[in-house]
Automatic annotation (TrEMBL):
GO terms for molecular function: S-adenosylmethionine-dependent methyltransferase activity. PANTHER family: CHEMOTAXIS PROTEIN (PTHR24422:SF8), CHEMOTAXIS PROTEIN METHYLTRANSFERASE (PTHR24422). PROSITE patterns: CHER. It comes from Dyadobacter psychrotolerans. GO terms for biological process: methylation. It comes from the Bacteria. Gene3D superfamilies: Vaccinia Virus protein VP39 (3.40.50.150). This is Protein-glutamate O-methyltransferase CheR. It holds the Pfam family CheR. The keyword Metal-binding does not apply. Keywords: Methyltransferase, Transferase.
Length: 269
Protein backbone atom coordinates (compact mmCIF):
# COMPACT_ATOMS: atom_id res chain seq x y z
CA UNK A 1 0.00 0.00 0.00
CA UNK A 2 1.28 3.47 -0.87
CA UNK A 3 1.74 5.75 2.16
CA UNK A 4 0.67 9.41 2.30
CA UNK A 5 4.26 10.67 2.49
CA UNK A 6 5.15 8.57 -0.58
CA UNK A 7 2.34 10.27 -2.53
CA UNK A 8 3.92 13.63 -1.67
CA UNK A 9 7.36 12.43 -2.83
CA UNK A 10 5.89 11.32 -6.18
CA UNK A 11 4.05 14.62 -6.64
CA UNK A 12 7.27 16.53 -5.98
CA UNK A 13 9.13 14.36 -8.51
CA UNK A 14 6.42 14.88 -11.13
CA UNK A 15 6.62 18.65 -10.74
CA UNK A 16 10.39 19.10 -10.30
CA UNK A 17 11.47 16.72 -13.08
CA UNK A 18 8.58 16.65 -15.55
CA UNK A 19 6.61 19.85 -14.87
CA UNK A 20 3.31 18.11 -14.03
CA UNK A 21 1.67 19.83 -11.07
CA UNK A 22 -0.78 17.55 -9.27
CA UNK A 23 -0.18 19.07 -5.83
CA UNK A 24 -3.65 20.64 -5.67
CA UNK A 25 -5.51 17.49 -6.71
CA UNK A 26 -7.65 15.65 -4.18
CA UNK A 27 -5.28 13.41 -2.17
CA UNK A 28 -7.91 10.68 -1.66
CA UNK A 29 -8.46 10.35 -5.41
CA UNK A 30 -4.72 10.38 -6.18
CA UNK A 31 -3.94 7.81 -3.51
CA UNK A 32 -6.64 5.49 -4.83
CA UNK A 33 -5.35 5.70 -8.39
CA UNK A 34 -1.65 5.44 -7.57
CA UNK A 35 -2.26 2.47 -5.24
CA UNK A 36 -4.25 0.75 -7.99
CA UNK A 37 -1.40 1.28 -10.47
CA UNK A 38 1.20 0.12 -7.93
CA UNK A 39 -0.71 -3.12 -7.47
CA UNK A 40 -1.56 -3.55 -11.17
CA UNK A 41 2.05 -3.17 -12.32
CA UNK A 42 3.35 -5.39 -9.48
CA UNK A 43 6.08 -3.11 -8.17
CA UNK A 44 8.20 -4.82 -5.50
CA UNK A 45 8.72 -1.52 -3.66
CA UNK A 46 7.87 2.16 -3.69
CA UNK A 47 11.51 2.92 -4.61
CA UNK A 48 11.07 0.96 -7.87
CA UNK A 49 7.87 2.85 -8.76
CA UNK A 50 9.57 6.16 -8.00
CA UNK A 51 12.60 5.26 -10.14
CA UNK A 52 10.37 4.38 -13.13
CA UNK A 53 8.38 7.62 -12.82
CA UNK A 54 11.57 9.68 -12.58
CA UNK A 55 13.53 8.04 -15.42
CA UNK A 56 11.27 6.14 -17.84
CA UNK A 57 9.43 8.47 -20.28
CA UNK A 58 7.13 5.73 -21.58
CA UNK A 59 6.16 4.72 -18.05
CA UNK A 60 5.64 8.36 -17.09
CA UNK A 61 3.07 8.58 -19.91
CA UNK A 62 1.22 5.56 -18.51
CA UNK A 63 1.41 6.96 -14.97
CA UNK A 64 -0.09 10.34 -15.97
CA UNK A 65 -2.82 8.60 -18.00
CA UNK A 66 -3.79 6.47 -15.02
CA UNK A 67 -3.93 9.23 -12.41
CA UNK A 68 -5.85 11.68 -14.58
CA UNK A 69 -9.55 10.94 -14.87
CA UNK A 70 -10.73 10.07 -18.38
CA UNK A 71 -14.33 9.00 -17.95
CA UNK A 72 -16.66 10.58 -20.47
CA UNK A 73 -19.46 9.81 -22.91
CA UNK A 74 -21.51 11.44 -25.66
CA UNK A 75 -24.59 13.44 -24.63
CA UNK A 76 -24.05 12.57 -20.97
CA UNK A 77 -26.95 14.05 -18.96
CA UNK A 78 -29.29 14.57 -21.95
CA UNK A 79 -31.25 17.34 -20.17
CA UNK A 80 -28.01 19.36 -20.02
CA UNK A 81 -27.62 19.09 -23.80
CA UNK A 82 -31.30 19.88 -24.29
CA UNK A 83 -30.72 23.11 -22.36
CA UNK A 84 -27.67 23.93 -24.48
CA UNK A 85 -29.77 23.29 -27.59
CA UNK A 86 -32.78 25.36 -26.50
CA UNK A 87 -31.38 28.06 -24.19
CA UNK A 88 -27.76 28.72 -25.17
CA UNK A 89 -27.22 28.06 -28.88
CA UNK A 90 -30.03 30.39 -30.07
CA UNK A 91 -28.27 33.25 -28.21
CA UNK A 92 -24.81 32.28 -29.48
CA UNK A 93 -26.28 32.03 -32.98
CA UNK A 94 -26.72 35.83 -33.04
CA UNK A 95 -22.93 36.27 -32.91
CA UNK A 96 -20.88 36.54 -36.11
CA UNK A 97 -18.50 33.83 -34.90
CA UNK A 98 -18.65 31.32 -32.02
CA UNK A 99 -15.68 30.09 -29.95
CA UNK A 100 -16.22 27.21 -27.54
CA UNK A 101 -13.64 25.77 -25.13
CA UNK A 102 -13.89 22.19 -23.84
CA UNK A 103 -11.40 22.29 -20.93
CA UNK A 104 -10.24 18.90 -19.69
CA UNK A 105 -11.93 17.30 -22.70
CA UNK A 106 -10.51 13.79 -22.14
CA UNK A 107 -11.09 11.56 -25.22
CA UNK A 108 -13.49 14.05 -26.81
CA UNK A 109 -16.95 12.51 -26.71
CA UNK A 110 -18.43 15.76 -25.37
CA UNK A 111 -16.63 17.81 -28.03
CA UNK A 112 -18.21 15.74 -30.79
CA UNK A 113 -21.58 15.99 -29.03
CA UNK A 114 -21.28 19.78 -29.15
CA UNK A 115 -20.23 19.72 -32.83
CA UNK A 116 -23.40 17.74 -33.62
CA UNK A 117 -25.54 20.26 -31.70
CA UNK A 118 -23.95 23.11 -33.64
CA UNK A 119 -24.50 21.36 -36.97
CA UNK A 120 -28.18 20.77 -36.19
CA UNK A 121 -28.57 24.42 -35.18
CA UNK A 122 -26.96 25.52 -38.47
CA UNK A 123 -24.04 27.07 -36.58
CA UNK A 124 -21.14 24.69 -37.18
CA UNK A 125 -19.72 26.62 -40.14
CA UNK A 126 -19.19 29.74 -38.04
CA UNK A 127 -17.90 27.91 -34.95
CA UNK A 128 -14.57 26.68 -33.62
CA UNK A 129 -14.30 24.16 -30.77
CA UNK A 130 -11.08 24.21 -28.75
CA UNK A 131 -10.44 20.82 -27.12
CA UNK A 132 -7.74 20.85 -24.43
CA UNK A 133 -6.43 18.39 -21.90
CA UNK A 134 -3.33 17.87 -19.79
CA UNK A 135 -2.86 14.39 -21.27
CA UNK A 136 -1.54 14.33 -24.87
CA UNK A 137 -2.47 10.67 -25.47
CA UNK A 138 -6.20 11.26 -24.91
CA UNK A 139 -6.04 14.21 -27.30
CA UNK A 140 -4.87 11.84 -30.03
CA UNK A 141 -8.23 10.06 -29.68
CA UNK A 142 -10.04 13.39 -30.12
CA UNK A 143 -8.02 14.02 -33.26
CA UNK A 144 -9.03 10.66 -34.76
CA UNK A 145 -12.71 10.92 -33.81
CA UNK A 146 -12.96 7.12 -33.49
CA UNK A 147 -14.93 5.51 -30.66
CA UNK A 148 -16.03 1.91 -29.93
CA UNK A 149 -19.10 0.97 -31.98
CA UNK A 150 -20.53 -0.91 -29.00
CA UNK A 151 -21.14 2.42 -27.25
CA UNK A 152 -23.22 3.90 -30.08
CA UNK A 153 -26.52 2.37 -28.92
CA UNK A 154 -26.31 4.14 -25.56
CA UNK A 155 -25.05 7.35 -27.19
CA UNK A 156 -27.91 7.25 -29.70
CA UNK A 157 -30.46 6.97 -26.88
CA UNK A 158 -28.88 9.92 -25.05
CA UNK A 159 -28.79 11.90 -28.30
CA UNK A 160 -32.51 11.33 -28.87
CA UNK A 161 -33.27 12.33 -25.24
CA UNK A 162 -31.27 15.52 -25.77
CA UNK A 163 -33.56 16.57 -28.62
CA UNK A 164 -31.58 15.07 -31.49
CA UNK A 165 -33.02 15.90 -34.90
CA UNK A 166 -31.51 13.15 -37.09
CA UNK A 167 -30.68 9.46 -37.14
CA UNK A 168 -27.56 9.41 -34.94
CA UNK A 169 -25.85 6.84 -37.20
CA UNK A 170 -25.68 9.42 -40.01
CA UNK A 171 -22.86 11.16 -38.11
CA UNK A 172 -20.39 8.27 -38.22
CA UNK A 173 -19.14 5.42 -40.39
CA UNK A 174 -19.01 1.96 -38.81
CA UNK A 175 -16.02 -0.25 -39.56
CA UNK A 176 -14.33 -3.15 -37.73
CA UNK A 177 -16.13 -2.49 -34.46
CA UNK A 178 -15.30 1.22 -34.52
CA UNK A 179 -17.35 4.34 -35.25
CA UNK A 180 -15.47 7.10 -37.07
CA UNK A 181 -17.21 10.47 -36.85
CA UNK A 182 -17.55 12.69 -39.91
CA UNK A 183 -14.61 14.83 -40.98
CA UNK A 184 -16.98 17.81 -41.15
CA UNK A 185 -17.17 17.65 -37.33
CA UNK A 186 -13.48 17.07 -36.61
CA UNK A 187 -12.43 19.84 -39.00
CA UNK A 188 -13.97 22.34 -36.56
CA UNK A 189 -12.04 21.02 -33.54
CA UNK A 190 -8.71 22.60 -32.54
CA UNK A 191 -6.72 20.32 -30.25
CA UNK A 192 -4.05 21.41 -27.79
CA UNK A 193 -2.49 20.38 -24.49
CA UNK A 194 -3.42 22.78 -21.70
CA UNK A 195 -2.78 22.41 -17.98
CA UNK A 196 -5.56 24.01 -15.94
CA UNK A 197 -3.22 24.09 -12.95
CA UNK A 198 -0.46 26.18 -14.51
CA UNK A 199 -1.42 27.50 -17.96
CA UNK A 200 -3.10 30.83 -18.62
CA UNK A 201 -5.98 32.05 -20.76
CA UNK A 202 -5.36 31.77 -24.51
CA UNK A 203 -8.47 33.22 -26.16
CA UNK A 204 -11.85 34.84 -25.51
CA UNK A 205 -14.72 32.35 -25.58
CA UNK A 206 -18.50 32.47 -25.84
CA UNK A 207 -18.99 29.16 -24.03
CA UNK A 208 -16.66 27.18 -21.78
CA UNK A 209 -17.45 23.60 -20.76
CA UNK A 210 -15.48 21.88 -18.00
CA UNK A 211 -17.61 19.03 -16.75
CA UNK A 212 -16.63 16.69 -13.92
CA UNK A 213 -13.05 17.93 -13.67
CA UNK A 214 -13.21 20.37 -10.73
CA UNK A 215 -14.45 17.64 -8.36
CA UNK A 216 -10.91 16.22 -8.37
CA UNK A 217 -9.33 19.54 -7.30
CA UNK A 218 -9.03 21.06 -3.86
CA UNK A 219 -10.90 24.30 -3.07
CA UNK A 220 -7.97 26.64 -3.81
CA UNK A 221 -7.34 25.09 -7.21
CA UNK A 222 -11.06 25.13 -8.03
CA UNK A 223 -11.04 28.89 -7.37
CA UNK A 224 -7.93 29.42 -9.50
CA UNK A 225 -9.45 27.50 -12.41
CA UNK A 226 -12.78 29.34 -12.13
CA UNK A 227 -10.91 32.66 -12.22
CA UNK A 228 -9.11 31.43 -15.36
CA UNK A 229 -12.47 30.62 -16.96
CA UNK A 230 -13.85 33.99 -15.90
CA UNK A 231 -10.89 35.73 -17.56
CA UNK A 232 -11.40 33.61 -20.69
CA UNK A 233 -15.13 34.26 -21.12
CA UNK A 234 -16.39 37.13 -23.21
CA UNK A 235 -19.17 39.45 -22.07
CA UNK A 236 -22.46 37.54 -21.59
CA UNK A 237 -20.67 34.25 -22.23
CA UNK A 238 -21.71 30.92 -20.72
CA UNK A 239 -19.92 28.54 -18.34
CA UNK A 240 -21.02 24.90 -18.03
CA UNK A 241 -19.88 22.57 -15.24
CA UNK A 242 -20.56 18.97 -14.22
CA UNK A 243 -23.56 17.73 -12.26
CA UNK A 244 -21.72 17.78 -8.89
CA UNK A 245 -19.96 21.11 -9.47
CA UNK A 246 -21.04 24.65 -8.66
CA UNK A 247 -20.04 28.31 -8.65
CA UNK A 248 -21.54 28.75 -5.17
CA UNK A 249 -18.97 29.93 -2.61
CA UNK A 250 -16.42 30.56 -5.39
CA UNK A 251 -14.54 33.83 -5.91
CA UNK A 252 -16.42 34.48 -9.18
CA UNK A 253 -19.98 33.54 -8.21
CA UNK A 254 -21.25 37.15 -8.23
CA UNK A 255 -20.25 37.52 -11.89
CA UNK A 256 -22.75 34.86 -12.98
CA UNK A 257 -26.40 33.97 -12.96
CA UNK A 258 -27.46 30.33 -13.17
CA UNK A 259 -29.60 29.72 -16.23
CA UNK A 260 -31.88 27.00 -14.90
CA UNK A 261 -31.57 23.78 -12.96
CA UNK A 262 -28.80 22.62 -15.28
CA UNK A 263 -25.22 23.51 -14.39
CA UNK A 264 -24.99 26.39 -16.87
CA UNK A 265 -24.21 29.97 -15.83
CA UNK A 266 -24.36 33.21 -17.82
CA UNK A 267 -21.73 35.89 -17.23
CA UNK A 268 -23.50 39.10 -16.22
CA UNK A 269 -20.55 41.47 -15.63
Amino acid sequence: MIEDEEIEILLTDLFDIHGYDFTSYSRASLKRRISRLYSLDKFPSFAELRYRVRTDESYLKRFVEEITVNVTEMFRDPSFYLSLRNDVLPILGTKPFIRIWHAGCSTGEEVYSMAILLKEAGLLKKSLLYATDLNPSVLEKVRKGIFPLIQMKQYSESYISSGGLADFSTYYTANYGQAKFDQELSDKIIISTHNLVSDSSFNEFDLILCRNVLIYFDKDLQDRVLKLFDASLGSLGYLALGSKETLKFSAVQNNYKQLNREKIWKKIV
